[in-house]
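U., I forgot to send this yesterday:
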Amino acid sequence: MTDIEEIINQIESDECPMIEDTLHKLLELAVTVTGLGEMDDGDSKTITFPLSAITITSDSYYQRFFFGEDILIEDNETIEALAQEIKKRLLKFDKQIKKTRTELAEEIFSEPIGQIPELAGMEITDFDIDIDEEDEEKEKEVE
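Result:
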């Protein structure tokens, strides 16, 4: 699985990237990894993505960006600021999702497996017994 940070580094390392291309690719990544927003499969490859209380619309065909559908963003300073904000939030999302993924994986895969060992001819033992409890039981048997 490719790391979001690696993808961002690749986006930013493209030779002579225009800030418009960078922002569009970051928005495309944001839609893909978060499931938020929408991407048009047509020629324009328009992306709409919710950011705070606004929606950013990116039209890569004409390399234009809008707040909502009608407020054109014309200055590179705003486009650069949006790119940095999307990048910052993608990195935060990546960090949080890794933590959540690990916790969820541990929770799910540590659950008892039911009758599977018995089906394989193995004796089912209580895998949830604390080691200290096992030691105490052995000591009682020795006495």
